[in-house]
Amino acid sequence: MPLTLIDMFATGLHFLPDGEVRPGERRMATDLGGWQLATFHVETDADVHSDEWEVHPAAEEAVCCLSGALRLYLRPEHPDDPETMVRLTSGTSVVIPRGRWHRIELDQPSDIMSVGLRRDTRREPANLA
Fold it and tell me: Helix or strand or coil: residue 28?
């Protein structure tokens, strides 16, 4: 099999159950049959859907800040609890627990990498004030 360079900002990687790694569409909310790795250059909060909560019930998700700075928020598990905020800077990452609602806001333009199993991913409005 010939080696092919892959533009990680245009193409995702899909890690299939049979051990195959296949380049393909970057679809963070779609189950394409296995784990997905996707890299994004983001300029604004709109690029990271800061106004939506997202949850991945099938597995944990790794969110990595390759460059720039961002804040990752976890929705409270109980109505009276505050959101949990984790600040990510260049070269840092966090593992979001399976089934935990989360969203991202940017502190500056960033390059972000996400690794996760997208089966049954859901989104809903964050209802920000």
Answer: coil
Angle at alpha carbon of residue 60, lines to 73 and 33, rounded to 5°: 125
How does DSSP classify residue 46?
A: G
What is this structure's pTM? 0.89
Give dist(CA 94, CA 92) in Å, integer.
7
Coil/strand/helix, residue 47: helix
- Among residues 36, 35, 26, 49, the alpha carbon closest in space to that of 102 is found at 49
| The two structure tokens encoding residue 123 | 């989104």
Domains parsed from the chain with CATH numbers? 12-125 (2.60.120.10)
Encoding tokens for residue 77?
């598990």
Q: pLDDT tier at 31 (50, 70, 90 boundaries)?
A: low
> In angstroms, rounded to a whole number, what is the distance separating the alpha carbons of residues 53 and 7?
28
* SS3 call for 126: coil
pLDDT at 28: 59
